[in-house]
Amino acid sequence: MTEKKFNWSVLIGAAFLMASSAIGPGFLTQTAVFTEQLGASFGFVILLSIILDAIAQLNIWRIIAVADKPAQDIANQVFPGLGYFISFLVFLGGMAFNIGNIAGAGLGLNVLLGVSVGQGAIMSAIIAIGIFVYKESGKAMDAFAKTMGCLKILLALFIAYISKPPLVEAAIRSVNPTHFSFTAVLTIVGGTVGGYITFAGAHRLLDARQTGVQNLPAISKGAVSAVGLASLMRLLLFLAALGVVTAGIKLDPTNPAASVFKLAGGQIGYKLFGLIMWSAGISSVVGSAFTSVSFIKSFHPVILKFNRQIIIGFIVVSCFIFLMIGKPVKILLAVGAINGLILPLALGIMLVAAYRNKIISNYKQPLWLTILGVMVVVVMTWMSYGAIVQILHP
C-alpha cells in the first residue's frame, strides 16, 4: 500500500468535531443534574465513563479507518440489512438530539442577546446552514469545531475556578464513591460516545480520505484526544457544579446548568452561560447534522450527490419541529440514555467486523483492544438493563 501523507489538521478537526458533538446542551444539563444528585461521587462516574468511552472510540475509529467504509456499510457486510437498522436508529437519535441542540442554541442567544428562544433557534440554524452552503464545508466545519471547542473549555475553566469546588473530596470520591447510579453512567457514556457521536470523527476522517492501516497510529491518537477533550469539559463542568452544590445552594430544576453559572459568577456568569450554551448548541447542530446524514449517504447515489442539501434540510426540519413543539427539556436526558443503549449494539457489530477478512483484509485487530471492547459491550448492556430497572422501579 502506498504511503499517504496524513493531514493532521483534519485529524484535530475530527477530534474536535466528535468532542463538540458530545458537548451539547444535553451534556451541560446532564452534568449539572447528576452532580446535584451524586455530589463528589459523580467524579467516579466520569472516571468510569472516560475508560468506557476511550475503548469504544478506539475500536470504532480504527475499524472504520481500516475498512475504509462508513459504519452502515460495514454493518451490512456483517449481516445484510443490519446497516439499515443501525442507520435508522442513529438518524432518528440524531434528529431528536438536534431538536435539543437547536433549542439549546436558541436558549443561549436568549440569555446573551435577549431575543426569544424561537428567534435564537432560527438565527442559530441559519449560521449552521451557512457552514454547509460554503463550498469548502469540510474545512469550515473543522475550523468551527476547533474554535467552539476551545471557547467552551476556557469558559468552563473560568467558572470552575470561581466556584471554588472541594478538589480533595472530588479526588477521593472519584476512586472511592459513596453513591452510584446505573442511569448516570449510561447517560454520560451515551452522551459522550453513544448514538451518532462516536462516528462523527471517524466519518469525518473517511470523508477527508484520511484512512488506511498506515495511518492507524495517528487515528488512535485522534480517537483518544476526542474523548479527552469531551472528558476535560465534563470534569470542569462537574467541578463548577460541585462548588455550587457543596455550598448548600439548590440548582434551579427548570435550568440546572444555567443556575450553576449564575450562582458561581453572578450576572457575568449567567451571560457566560448564554455563550457556552450557544456554542454547545450550534457546534452540536453541525456535528449531529453531518454525522446523521453520513449514515444514509452511501445508500443511494442521489443522497451522495445532494449530501450538502440534505444536511441543510436536516437542520431546517430540526428547527421547524422545535418551533412547532417547543423546548424539549426532558428529552435532553432521555436521548443520552437512548444513545447509551445504541452503543453496545454498534460497538458489537464493529468488533465482529474486525474479524471478517472481506471487510478488513489482512489487518489484525490487537487482541487486548477486542477483549476490552467486548467488556464494554457487556458492561453497557448490563447497565442498560440496570437503568431500565431503575426507571421502572425507582
Q: Give the H and E element order.
A: HHHHHHHHHHHHHHHHH
- Please name the CATH architecture: Up-down Bundle
In helices, the fraction of residues equals over 70%
The biggest beta sheet is recorded as: none
Q: Supply Rg.
A: 20 Å
**Helical stretch tally:** 17
The termini sit apart by 56 Å
- Low-pLDDT parts are none
Domain module tally: 1
Number of strands: 0
Task: Please describe what this structure looks like.
This protein has about 400 residues and is mainly α. It has a single domain (about 10-390), classed as Amino acid/polyamine transporter I, CATH 1.20.1740.10. It is about 80% helix and about 0% strand. The chain contains 17 helices and no strands. The longest helix is centred in the last third of the chain and has 39 residues, at about 255-295. This is Membrane protein ycsG. It is a multi-pass membrane protein.
How are the elements arranged and paired?
Blueprint: H1 8-22, H2 25-38, H3 42-67, H4 71-78, H5 82-113, H6 117-133, H7 137-162, H8 167-175, H9 182-193, H10 197-207, H11 216-246, H12 256-294, H13 301-305, H14 307-325, H15 329-353, H16 357-360, H17 367-392
Helix pairs in contact: 1-7, 1-10, 1-11, 1-12, 2-9, 2-11, 2-12, 2-15, 3-8, 3-9, 3-10, 3-11, 3-15, 3-17, 4-5, 4-15, 5-6, 5-12, 5-14, 5-15, 6-12, 6-14, 7-11, 7-12, 9-15, 9-17, 10-12, 11-12, 12-14, 15-17
